[in-house]
Design brief:
Number of helices: 3
Strand order of the largest sheet: 1-2-3-5-8-11-14
Mean pLDDT: 80
Number of domains: 2
Shape: elongated
Number of strands: 14
Order of helices and strands: HHEEEEEEEEEEEEEEH
Distance between the termini: 58 Å
Largest sheet: 7 strands, mixed
Length: about 170
Amino acid sequence: MFKFWRKKKEEAALVAVKSAKEKKEYVDDLFRQIEHAWWSIAMRKYELTNQSINMLNNRTFYKIKALIDFGNVHSGEYGGYIEKEENLSQIGDCWIYDDSIAFGNAKVVESAVVKEKSIVSGETVMGGKSMVTGGAWVSVGHILTGNDWIKGNAINSLALCNKLYDLADSI
């Protein structure tokens, strides 16, 4: 973060030689960057709580709690579990409800939702208004965007699919 501010100070010294229009554009851009940096530090939409569970090869999953109102979530409302903050974006209306879990390198962003005891793991990325619900487990690099929806007791795992294909080939 200090490198960011040092770079901005150096860039500010160069503004003295620019035209008035270029100065205004530079200052506007600088304020946008500062606002974004401030938002990402100060305006957090959720926090990890002290409540945690250990499962799946002794991994620790932390219960999340909303700090502000957003989407259908209210401040103080508890959500599901994440392994690390990188699993759930602080920006947008994305949320992990109930006893659902996101872990590994999975990312839930934008307005994506995980609920009803579902699991998102591996390299899965959920964005747009995608939803995983009804106890489904999505893993191994799936990319869900737009209005993608996985429901029910589905297990979308590349390893499992490959085993099923191998089994089908041997019949």
